[in-house]
Design a protein that fits this description.
single chain; seven-stranded parallel sheet; about 35% helix; globular
Length: about 350
């Protein structure tokens, strides 16, 4: 197949391109040429920008398009309309963050999604793109999906991943935990041991998406894992084992953490405090994707491969996770309280 990837060099796009090339497809990459531009010399490189610089896509045809870089609906509309007659199939990478009303677990593809009023959309158009996306990421993804479905009626595939993890994960959320376990010692573990967590290895997601594109599947699919329920304790113990660590988990009460200014998700990735009433956030139902062939590698493989990638990094400042000094101070206060 001739496959156009909008993006294709940073994280999920990187593995989509790698998978497609390994399977013998002819791949074109459209991006700004700023992130790892020397990757995939065997792929065609098309330079442009989603913000009105789509000239490199004009007058061309592909069998399928995979859009990994669509965040603003007005930009997605431009690319979808331009490519409407240039390709038979359009895959849009959305997000499980589209869902609203997160109080209950087991959110499937028919669950309510976030909405923005037209006047709010107009307001966001006048804002800095990063600020607009940061403020209304999920709702904007919903509108992006709608633009794709309108331009490619009956020819679109919408993927709603959960947290994507593994090598080249620039968010550092999963990476924080594997690094922290590798370091060892006393590790602050947040809240309930039995709290459910979800994520998907980027390579599992990429391989499945390429298979779905090959068979020209359509519809909307949640895509997160693992297939069986995974608790925070099982996750952390799995990281500890795979990292061959001597780490000692110290489970700290949610209210104590919040009282000490420890924030869910940013300070403690994969942890959302119970008091936020978001049980649906990390309990998304992906059975439809599993029935369509999505599979998951063992946690130990993801941990080991992430650590191997980490060993090659030169980044000195992490984007997520608890500061070591703050972790130490909170643990000391917790111990004193227990005496």
């Amino acid at each position: 197949m001739k496959i156009l990837i909008l993006g294709g060099t940073r994280f999920l796009g990187r593995f989509l391109a790698e998978t497609a090339l390994q399977k013998g497809h002819e791949v074109s990459l459209f991006n700004r040429g700023k992130s790892d531009p020397n990757l995939f010399p065997e792929a065609e490189k098309l330079t442009g920008d989603r913000d009105g610089q789509l000239e490199a896509l004009k007058g061309r045809t592909w069998d399928a398009v995979i859009d990994t870089s669509g965040y603003l609906p007005w930009q997605v509309k431009d690319s979808a309309e331009l490519l409407r007659d240039a390709t038979g199939h359009y895959t849009f990478i959305s997000s499980a963050s589209v869902y609203a009303e997160l109080e209950g677990p087991g959110i499937d593809e028919n669950h309510a999604v976030g909405q923005l009023k037209p006047e709010k959309v107009e307001e966001l158009k006048g804002m800095d793109a990063a600020q607009a996306i940061g403020a209304h990421y999920g709702e904007l993804k919903v509108l992006c999906e709608q633009e794709v479905e309108q331009a490619f009626t009956g020819r679109s595939l919408i993927i709603r991943p959960g947290l994507i993890v593994g090598p080249y994960d620039f968010t550092d959320r999963f990476t924080y935990w594997v690094n922290r376990m590798k370091k060892g010692g006393e590790v602050l573990a947040p809240g309930r041991r039995d709290k459910e967590v979800q994520f998907i290895d980027v390579r599992d997601l990429a391989e499945w998406i390429v298979k779905m594109v090959e068979s020209q599947e359509t519809g909307t699919f949640n895509a997160t894992g693992p297939e069986e329920k995974l608790t925070m304790e099982q996750f952390l113990e799995g990281c500890k084992s795979a990292a061959e660590s001597d780490a000692e988990l110290v489970w700290v009460d949610e209210h104590f953490l919040l009282g000490h200014g420890v924030a869910g998700w940013s300070d403690m990735p994969l942890w959302i405090p119970d008091e936020e009433n978001m049980a649906g956030f990390l309990t998304v139902d992906s059975r439809k994707a599993v029935q369509a062939g999505l599979t998951f590698r063992p946690l130990s493989d993801t941990v080991r491969d992430t650590l191997a990638w980490e060993a090659t990094r030169t980044v000195s400042e992490r984007k997520a996770g608890l500061d070591p000094q703050k972790e130490k101070a909170v643990l000391e206060d917790w111990k004193e309280r227990a005496l």
